[in-house]
Amino acid sequence: MKSNIDKAEADITTHYKNPYEIVQELLQESIQTLGLNENIYHILKKPMRVLEVSIPIRLDNGRIHNFTGYRSQHLDILGPTKGGIRFHPDVNMDEVKALSIWMSLKSAILDLPLGGGKGGIIVDPSALSKRELETLSRAYIEKITPIIGPQKDIPAPDMNTSPEVMGWMIDEYDKLRGYNIPGMLTGKPVIIGGSQGRLAATGRGVAITIQEAANVLGMEMNGATAALQGFGNVGSMTAKFLHGLGVKITGITNAHGGIFDQDGLDIPDLLKFIKKGNRIHTYPKAAPLTNEDLFGLPVDILIPAAVENQITKNTAPAIQAKIVAEAANGPTTPQGDEIMEQKDIFVIPDILCNAGGVTVSYFEWVQNAMNYYWKEEEVNQKLTEKMTAGFQQVLAIREQKQMRMRQAAYTAGIRHIVKALHARGWIENEKTLEG
Fold first, then answer.
1. What is the mean pLDDT of residues 232-251?
2. Three-state DSSP class for 190?
3. What is the C-alpha separation between 236 and 305, in angstroms, rounded?
4. How far apart are CA 32 and CA 223, in angstroms?
5. What Rg, from alpha-carbon coordinates, does the chain have?
6. What is the mean pLDDT of residues 365-372?
7. Quick check: 316 and 181 in contact, CB under 8 A?
8. pLDDT tens, residue by residue, 8-37
9. Given pLDDT bands bounded at 50, 70 and 90, which one contains residue 357?
């Protein structure tokens, strides 16, 4: 008889388009649109290194379970690769490959001296005890230690991982190396070298880009309405910051269900409710809401902050929002994107919208190298400067080239990488796209 862990590992969804194929199509389309040599595509279309590891650990019941983990490193011409580690039943090799490519583009758009990396383990962490989760986290780091480090590849938190998990991982790495190396990993607890502002960074960055998009559309934030899919770290922090700007968040859903209040949910009260260990769909001060109905809510801003392939040919037609802010990685399929373009929805693409996390991870890495740490106000100020500059660069390309925001974001990222390829002699006489 299969355990819950076996079932979670076997139940990998196959009903949506492969994100690795999606990102390769977007790269190819962008490179063709820019008139670049197809050699650029062949350099960027695959990660330079992908590692698959088996991780046998002893469960509390005495049984050995062998988990599968991955680490993908896309391109390191701008600096060490950088990216999160996710624990989820749907993790697979193609997903981490795609996510590592997106990480390269994010870093390039924000002018960070990093390449893209991503990792994960096929696991439902809720099916593990805390001891089992710690054992798995440490064993994963032991397995990938040969290819990571502060000048090689720098992991960070992602879906279902946390500062606590990062603390276990860096402790294991330091034991293996025999000394303290705080810069090998970011998103760790502040007491052991983490950065102020890191936990809220991705959500804060999402809110910053939404403000910038609202300015473009002449939309007032105070009194605007929003709906969120996903209420983990990114979704909850985004909700917190938007609520602080006067945005009324009327609907929220996650994997277990959702809630709705046309007058706006009490976000501070909801955050307290969730912090006590409650699930969002049990919040008593709101009406129930399905994920399907969320996409059709009459709101100004829609924020997919969960997983890939949520805005599709089936869900996109219902969207009424003026702004779609992609807080998740790869939440939109090509068909969904076409429909939103036809509806003239202002899309803030994921490789720009959710780049706040990697930006403050970069700040953490810098602080670790200096062994000097900034106050949260300074971190937030630097993040705002980076996110605003990145948004304005993408917007300028959009207006100059008369293209979608997604194409403009890919153009910004590819342009930056092409310059580095040319500087290193990988390509000759290639356009660097100054104009």
1. 94
2. helix
3. 9
4. 41
5. 21
6. 96
7. no
8. 433 333 345 788 998 999 899 889 888 898
9. very high
Distances (CA, A) of 152 to 78, 363, 393: 11, 17, 28
257-260/248-254 β-pairing: antiparallel
Q: Evaluate whether 81 touches 152 at the Cβ level (below 8 Å).
A: yes
**Token pair belonging to 300:** 């100004």
Which residue, 125, 131, 123, is CA-closest to 68? 123
Q: Which of 118, 143, 240, 386 is catalytic?
A: 118
Residue 64 has pLDDT above 70, yes or no: yes
The arithmetic mean of pLDDT across residues 84-89, rounded, is: 96
CB atoms within 10 A of CB 61: 9
Give the whole-angstrom CA distance, residue 345 versus residue 24: 24
Listed as own residue / partner, the contacts of 379-384 with beta carbons closer than 8 Å and 24 or more positions apart are 379/195, 379/196, 379/197, 379/198, 379/201, 380/197, 380/204, 383/197, 383/201, 383/204, 383/205, 383/208, 383/356, 383/359, 384/208
Closest CA to 115 of 152, 159, 157: 152
Is the pLDDT confidence value at 123 over 80? yes
Residue range 177-186: mean pLDDT, rounded: 95
Within a 13 Å sphere around the CA of 367, how many CA atoms are in the beta-carbon half?
A: 25
Question: For this structure, is 188 an active site residue?
Answer: no
Q: How many helices, marked H, and strands, marked E, lie in the chain?
A: 15, 12
For residue 87, give the 3-state DSSP assignment: strand
Q: Specify the pTM.
A: 0.91
